[in-house]
Every structure is written in structure tokens, then in C-alpha cells.
Amino acid sequence: MTTARPPASGRSSSSRSSSGRPASGRSPGRRPGGPDTRGEIVKAARETFAEKGFAATSLRAVARQAGVDAALVHHYFGGKDELFIEAMALPLDPRQMAARIVDGPRSELGRRIVTLFLGVWESADGRQRMTAMLRSVVTSEAVARTMREGMTGMILEPVSRFIGPPDARLRAGLIAGHLFGVALTRYLVELEPVADADLSTLIDRIAPAIQQYIDG
């Protein structure tokens, strides 16, 4: 008569690994990538940036908010800058914009800045995104803080280094204030005759003023 032997460990070896985790190896509570995982990460990033600001937001914090593994955030976006650009729905990568601004002679820097900035607003998609962003910035302190921290690191600091002392950061900030004032006047308030001025005329009028900030 044969006697059946009991399992050696007293539990099934098929459902758990030696570490106590599911046999799949995934940590509990973290979902794998799905059809809309990217969109969920963007939504979580937007919420986390608004709550914590750009500087205090980490990719791990966004992953926790989205309920996914941090590796998925890296897979879809690579880094925090890329995630910020996507979450804020920016029409142009600010790092590329900064690189184009500083690529050229200093004497033409003012014209390059104005041409690139207004060029973003002049496209239909760019105007829609920038209008939404500007309205959010002026109505929400959380969004304003996020944009301020993100754009400072990606645009204002590289431009400040190119401008050089003295007061490089102040002058870069004044340039930003001047340009956003023009954008508010032309595209949101639509104040005449700024609103219907020809783009080339507008650039010709504004560029010398921006160059004055640069030259100090």
C-alpha cells in the first residue's frame, strides 16, 4: 500500500516565488503598460506638477500617482523635462528653442528671440496651446509655479548664460515679461492696432527693444 507524501513546503510553489511575490515577478499594486498608460501618466504628471511644482516633482512620484512602475515613465518619456513638455502641452520643446536662440551672433539675438517666440503663436496649433497655457498661468498659482520653474531651467538659464553679466538673469526675465506682454495684447486681448499688425512689422518694432535688454 502506497502512502501519499505531503508537499515539502506546505504551500503551492506555482503561485508564489520564494520572496512572497506573485510568480510573474511584478510588485503588487503596479500595473503593466496598457493601451492608455501613456495618457494616464500625462494626467498624473499634470496633477503632480500642479501640486508640487516642477522642482519637487520626481518621476517616481508621477509613477505612484499613475499607479504604474517608474520604469514605464522612463520608457515613455525618458526624463522629467520631456514629461513636463507633454504634460503642459507645449507646442515646442523649450530646450530646442533655447538652442536656436543662442545659435548665432549676439547682435541679432533680439530679432531671433522675437521671431521664434511670435512664430510659435502665429501657427494655429501653437496659438491654441499657448493661449490655454497663458490663461492657466494667470488664473492658477500652481500652474504658474510649475511653468516658472520649468521654463527657467530650460530657457531662461541658457539665455542668461549667453547674455552674460551684469544682471543677466534680470535682463532675461525682462525679455520674457516684454514678450508675454505682447502676446497678451495681440492674441488674448486683441488690442488694435497690435492685434492686426503685420508680423514682420511687429518683429521690426520689437526686436530693437529686446536687443537693448541684451546689450544692457
Q: How do the helices and strands line up, and which of them pair or pack?
A:
Elements: H1 37-52, H2 59-66, H3 70-77, H4 80-87, H5 94-101, H6 109-122, H7 124-139, H8 141-163, H9 168-188, H10 199-215
Helix pairs in contact: 1-2, 1-4, 1-8, 2-3, 5-8, 6-7, 6-10, 7-8, 8-9
Short précis:
The chain is mainly α and 216 residues long. It contains 10 helices and no strands.
Describe this structure as you would to a colleague.
This is AcrR family transcriptional regulator. Residues 1-27 have a biased composition (Low complexity). Helix content is 64%, strand content 0%. The chain is mostly helical and 216 residues long. The protein has two domains: 37-87, Homeodomain-like (Arc Repressor Mutant, subunit A), CATH 1.10.10; 94-215, Tetracycline Repressor, domain 2. 22% of the residues are buried. Mean pLDDT is 84; it is low at 1-29. It has helices at residues 37-52, 59-66, 70-77, 80-87, 94-101, 109-122, 124-139, 141-163, 168-188, 199-215.
Q: What is the percent of helical residues?
A: 55-70%
**Full CATH superfamily name of the largest domain:** Tetracycline Repressor, domain 2
Principal-axis shape: globular
Count, helices? 10
Q: How do the helices and strands follow one another from N- to C-terminus?
A: HHHHHHHHHH
Number of discrete domains:
2
What structural class do helix, strand and pairing data support? mainly alpha
N-end to C-end Cα span: 101 Å
The overall average pLDDT, rounded, is 84
Number of E-type strands = 0
CATH topology of the largest domain: Tetracycline Repressor, domain 2
Quote the beta fraction.
under 5%
User: Low-confidence stretches at least 5 residues in length (pLDDT < 50)?
Assistant: 1-29
Please summarize the sheet with the most strands.
none
CATH architecture of the largest domain: Orthogonal Bundle
Radius of gyration: 25 Å
